[in-house]
Amino acid sequence: MSDHSDEQKPLTAIERLSRRAFLTRAGAAGVATATAGVAAPLAAAAVVDSVSQAAQALHENSIPGTVPITLRVNGQMHKVEIDPRATVLDTLRETLHLTGTKKGCDHGQCGACTIHVNGQRANSCLLFAAMQQNKEITTIEGLGSPDKLHPLQAAFVEHDGYQCGYCTSGQIMSAAAMLRESWGPADSDVKEALSGNICRCGAYPNIVAAVQACRRNATA
Fold first, then answer.
1. What is the DSSP code string of 42-68?
2. Within its chain, how far is the Cα of 79 from the centroid?
3. Which has more pLDDT, 97 or 216?
4. Disulfide check for 149: which of 50, 98, 119, 154 has CB 3.0–4.6 Å away?
5. Spatial separation of the C-alpha atoms in residues 93 and 65, rounded to whole Å
6. What DSSP state is assigned to residue 12?
7. Would you place residue 17 in the very low, low, confident or very high pLDDT band (cuts 50, 70, 90)?
8. Are residues 83 and 106 in contact, defined by beta-carbon separation less than 8 angstroms?
9. CA dihedral for 156, 157, 163, 164, sign (positive or negative)
10. What is the structure's pLDDT at 49?
11. Is the pLDDT of residue 96 over 70?
12. Alpha-helix residue ranges (DSSP H) falling in 104-186
């Protein structure tokens, strides 16, 4: 039989917390803790997903297997994505659409693809484009324009040194570099200097005449 005086005694705060209330609060706290434990990884996952999506977007905008490079051609910077095995010749023609440089043998033997790299003549079919960054590349388009021909271009027209014209770009680029090199004054010196540029037509005498005209007039 309970003591009536005990029933009338005020309950303390702890005593007022019933078992049901305790379980309810404990359950709520557990849910909150569990929610926080899940929310943090979810937030981190959302950040990872965002980064992954950005990377995926960049990847989707790139052509698989290509590499980004920057080339300076005829005084202009070009940011392109190319096959790392691409030559300068193919990059000029197929990517930058500078088709003045011609593809002949594609083995560095005919000189049709001659360009200037840092002022020196080079066969563009033998150069990897990815290795030419930070260099100055000049093509026939950068030597002169239809409205303002380079003196060698004008001389080739005057002396009929082009015939079919397929080798002409390489011949002119090679001759333009030759004029800055140490060669003798004779026609044989010009022929030797341009011996890396092969054409099977009969324009050789006219090409030599055009080059010699520029040398005599010191116009190039």
1. HHHHHHHHHHHHHHHHHHHHSPTT-EE
2. 4
3. 97
4. 154
5. 20
6. P
7. very low
8. no
9. positive
10. 66
11. yes
12. 140-143, 151-158, 168-178
pLDDT in tens, 108-148: 999 999 999 999 999 999 999 999 999 999 999 999 988 99
CA atoms within 13 A on the CB side of 28: 5
**Beta strands 67-73 and 76-82, pairing class:** antiparallel
Query: Which residues, listed in sequence order, are joined to residue 117 by a DSSP beta bridge?
Result: 120, 137
Q: Is the separation of the CB atoms in 124 and 135 below 8 Å? A: no
Distance CA 122, CA 49 (A): 48
Phi/psi at 121 (5° precision): -70, 145
Tens digit of each residue's pLDDT (9 = 90 or more) over 173-214 = 999 999 999 999 999 999 999 999 998 777 789 999 999 999
| pLDDT confidence band for 53 (50 / 70 / 90) | low
**Residue 64's Cα: distance from chain center in Å?**
14
Return the structure tokens found at 81: 């994505």
Phi first, then psi, for residue 157 (nearest 5°) are -65, -45
Exposed / middle / buried, residue 197 (Cβ in 10 Å: 0-12, 13-18, 19+): buried
* pTM, full prediction: 0.71
Pairing of strands 136-138, 114-117: antiparallel
Assess contact for 87 and 126: CB atoms under 8 A: yes
- For tokens 């392109």, name the residue: 80
- Give the per-residue pLDDT at 148: 92
What pLDDT is attached to residue 113? 98
